[in-house]
Write a structure and sequence with these properties.
Elements (H helix, E strand, L loop, with lengths): L1 H16 L6 E3 L4 H9 L8 E9 L2 E3 L2 E2 L1 E5 L9 E6 L31 H9 L7 E13 L4 E10 L12 E8 L7 E2 L28 E4 L10 E3 L2 E6 L5 E11 L8 E6 L4 E3 L14 E2 L4 E4 L6 E6 L2 E2 L7 E4 L3 E9 L2 E9 L1 E2 L20
């Protein structure tokens, strides 16, 4: 009996002392590895070709940079792996969330600020947004050609120390800028709140009590025991761009500190590994917040038809058993995705669906008011 009791005590205390699972970050990847091996995942290379990858940011020394490869590392983080672009030390993005990044820096991290980016500044100005104090820019860029599809997409999350329950005014800045290579036309920013041209930031997607904005796309305010060292995050978002088949495009993914010349309160963009592929349009999100949600007890058919292709449908990141046809009938709230294999070329579609309750009007509370009116 004593042995069993002692064993239970050991198990109890070892369970309490086990560390929480956090993401891992590796800053030893170069630009080609991050783009070709991670972002494209080595999938569908015969359908989208990529070249001239480069990355810039800050090298703090001792192998620590403002960018790198991340892996969920057994944690609850939404993405399995991908690329992190940070306004500070990428290694400091690893959980737990127990200090403000850059506020608690010690050498070699303290007071290490670097330059901004003129294209990001121009994007902010074009959207009538403040562009003061843009610094600590980390930039990943490359050229690509789609050989088959007229739309591309990729998935990402925005995480920030500026996500606080009382912050309605401050946000770092980022943009995903795309245009035809060597064109004089301006960049198009595709890092926008879905269905709008509004750039994603902590002030445009937020669940703060005094200034909620686009709450359906907000992920969480993070407690200490979370996979990353950021105060909050969006849900997984999708960036999309319409393109011309056979045309070379240049894409520039940039994030920077904004509004504070000391560069405090870091932010990061997490790019999902293997997600830069052709895109299948499943329609606009159907959300309660913008009045497009479906009524409860109804359904919607999602159509991903691509001749000769095979399909796998997902709900909230989990494969739906038996859902392998071109169409899928949705009857529940969720984030729905479809992976399409088109003779070796990869396509992906995604949509967020919400259902709103029908108001319950009981007979006993129903009052009919009749007024008399005399016609002359």
């Amino acid at each position: 009996m004593n042995k069993i009791f002692n064993y239970c005590l050991i198990f109890l205390f070892s369970s309490v002392l086990l560390p929480a699972q956090y993401i891992s970050v590796d800053t030893n990847y170069d630009a080609n590895q991050l783009v070709k091996d991670v972002f494209f995942g080595g999938v569908g290379s015969s359908c989208i070709s990529v070249d001239n990858a480069s990355i810039s940011g800050y090298d703090f020394g001792s192998g620590n940079k403002s960018y790198g490869y991340f892996n969920k590392n057994g944690s609850s983080f939404e993405m399995q792996e991908g690329i992190i672009l940070s306004t500070g030390s990428a290694l400091q993005a690893v959980g737990p969330n127990n200090f403000i990044q850059t506020e608690k820096r010690t050498d070699p991290f303290a007071e290490r600020n670097w330059g901004g980016d003129p294209d990001l500044i121009e994007t902010l100005n074009n959207n009538s947004l403040n562009s003061d104090n843009i610094l600590n820019a980390t930039i990943l860029e490359f050229d690509f050609v789609s050989l088959k599809y007229s739309e591309i997409s990729f998935e990402y999350m925005f995480l920030s120390e500026e996500y606080r329950r009382d912050n309605c005014d401050y946000s770092d800045a980022f943009a995903f800028l795309i245009k035809k290579k060597n064109s004089a036309e301006p960049y198009q920013n595709i890092a926008t709140v879905p269905g709008t041209t509004t750039p994603v930031s902590t002030t445009t997607i937020n669940a703060a009590e005094n200034c909620p904005k686009n709450v359906s796309y907000f992920g969480s305010f993070n407690e200490e025991e979370t996979p990353t060292n950021f105060n909050g995050q969006t849900k997984t978002l999708t960036a999309k761009a319409n393109i011309e088949v056979g045309q070379t495009y240049h894409i520039k993914l940039v994030i920077a500190d904004h509004g504070d010349d000391t560069g405090r309160f870091d932010s990061a963009v997490f790019l999902k590994g293997g997600s830069f592929i052709g895109s299948k349009d499943l329609g606009q999100d159907r959300l309660i917040m913008d009045g497009t949600a479906l009524c409860e007890n109804t359904s919607i058919i999602l159509n991903a038809t691509t001749p000769g292709a095979t399909y796998i449908w997902y709900k909230d990141g989990v494969a739906i058993p038996g859902a392998n046809l071109a169409n899928y009938v949705v009857t529940e709230n969720g984030y729905y995705e479809v992976n399409i294999d088109d003779s070796g070329c990869q396509l992906k579609g995604s949509i967020r669906i919400e259902f709103s309750e029908i108001p319950n009007v009981s007979k006993k509370n129903f009052v009919m008011i009749i007024t008399a009116h005399q016609f002359n």
